[in-house]
Amino acid sequence: MELSRRHALAGAAALAASPFILNVPARAVAPLADKQAPGFYRYRVGDIQVNAISDGAGSFPLTDAYIANAKKDEINAALARAFLPKDRITTFYAPLVLNIGGKLVLIDTGNGQGAFASSKGNVGQFTTNMVAAGLDPKAIDTVVISHFHGDHVNGLLLADGTPAFPNAEVLVPAAEWKFWMDDAEMSRASGDRMTGLFKNNRRVFEAGLKKKVTPYEWDKDVVPGLLAVASIGHTPGHTSYVLSSGSDTLFVQSDVTNLPALFATNPDWHVMYDQDPAQAQATRHKVYDMLVAEKMRVQGFHYPFPANGFVEKDGNGYRLMPAPWSPVM
Amino acid sequence: MELSRRHALAGAAALAASPFILNVPARAVAPLADKQAPGFYRYRVGDIQVNAISDGAGSFPLTDAYIANAKKDEINAALARAFLPKDRITTFYAPLVLNIGGKLVLIDTGNGQGAFASSKGNVGQFTTNMVAAGLDPKAIDTVVISHFHGDHVNGLLLADGTPAFPNAEVLVPAAEWKFWMDDAEMSRASGDRMTGLFKNNRRVFEAGLKKKVTPYEWDKDVVPGLLAVASIGHTPGHTSYVLSSGSDTLFVQSDVTNLPALFATNPDWHVMYDQDPAQAQATRHKVYDMLVAEKMRVQGFHYPFPANGFVEKDGNGYRLMPAPWSPVM
What we know:
The structure is a homodimer.
Chain A: H1 5-13, E1 40-45, E2 48-53, E3 57-61, H2 72-81, E4 88-92, E5 96-100, E6 103-107, H3 126-132, E7 142-144, H4 150-153, E8 169-173, H5 174-180, H6 183-188, H7 191-208, E9 214-216, E10 221-223, E11 226-230, E12 239-245, E13 248-254, H8 260-263, H9 277-294, E14 298-300, E15 308-314, E16 317-322
Parallel strand pairs in A: 6-7, 7-8, 8-9, 13-14
Antiparallel strand pairs in A: 1-2, 2-5, 3-4, 5-6, 10-11, 11-12, 12-13, 14-15, 15-16
């Protein structure tokens, strides 16, 4: 048995001499479907139905700014260890729809329709995938926002600026609301990114939702079974959740890490999106140590779809073991 | 931040006192879709489109017979390390449809319609998922069989015993054909399992397909771009493949391992389905050492859907790192 790539190519070259070439007459072939499967995935946490719904993935060149305290070579080495292409970062997005006792609860909303028209449809797929899952945006009872970054809040509005979930109450972390709606904080914002975030949040929550939101506090259930827990650093009000039903639990981490192959493996790396990098790093260790100790299943907004699994300790960091896909609910 | 399960439950208990209970009036909720997403997944290997199509998964109690040379406690420990439930084995099935230059090539066929009526639809989902992927069984040009076990060949026939892929040529490993069609081998078969396999293969290939198959040899392309390589032990003619297009390659391992969490991690374990366990073990090491050395992507019939990834060395064994789900082709 000789299995090398070279041999594979030699095999292809030797083909002309092979008696096994199919000589089927050419016939018309219907144009093949080439769309990816719809990006939704369902599982249960006790009596609760969890629907992980992909908003797609965006890809961009790796820059020096992406991780403040890691060199491009180190990042490329981490990408290589994860069998990912070098010099390129792909970011995945996966909001959740929970069915808790007949109520539909959406956690985070994705990048929104049209916001990424330039992405050629690679991102902004949330609504399409939600509908493919048999879920109607009008049937959403509650939207829970983890933090006020565009990939989590922009989907609150349709392209025309009206609410995307017209029958839903919108619940936001009290600390997050306080920070981003504070004019003094906005006036202190430095740099295009922070200024842009403030402007975007005013657009979404003031112009779009007319401030019709309900702030929620940490250490309380946002909706029955969904406990809000502070996991700050990424933003001042960044929130994760413990979902529980009976003895079954799920940790909904939100953005405690971005891509696990980079930031679970290297929890001390400071991704450019972490507003308070040192605090985010401390939170990352605290959360992932807890996930390891409790063997708790975790769902991550930026994990590759279907974006859930279990965490094990791995050297100085952690490793996400994706949960096996179950073909039935 | 206190994230333990106990706290989560305390949080739920404290709910009655929370001001954040939603007090939305009860309203009619349409019955929720609870079907899992269709089990197909597409990616490219060079110019070739690979469609991994789930045939579902079967689950059964762990028995002492499942692995000849491992104790139940050791198996349960391996399951626990992979965050899988103990005392239970879940087996996944994923045939492939390749689109090579406009020809549709199916590798292995799954358990077949109706064969597992008792599984409540958990297995035998191949045709449903194939149609969901926009692929018509009548459009399959070629069926390539890796080996003659029921979960690979039974899908060749419909429930009424007629061919499921009426326009396809069926290609089978020459060594596999020779073994299972040999009356002397059949008369030497011992035990219910081997006797049953011989009978099943006569049913499928004699009664069903009237022996209309084309045997293929190793180390040659079965169809252009798909090189057959011997990977015996699991059966006498067990075949894997190197798929290549341009500089891009994929190893289609067939049953070199069953569930990777058990048999990539513990390549010396002898699953009950390996006909020549020592040979299968040697093959496993050879193939997985090659996958590590070549960093070659691998697709596995019994890997959890979508059943592909990359292999790294892990202690005395190997570990499958699932490839991230791409939301676009």
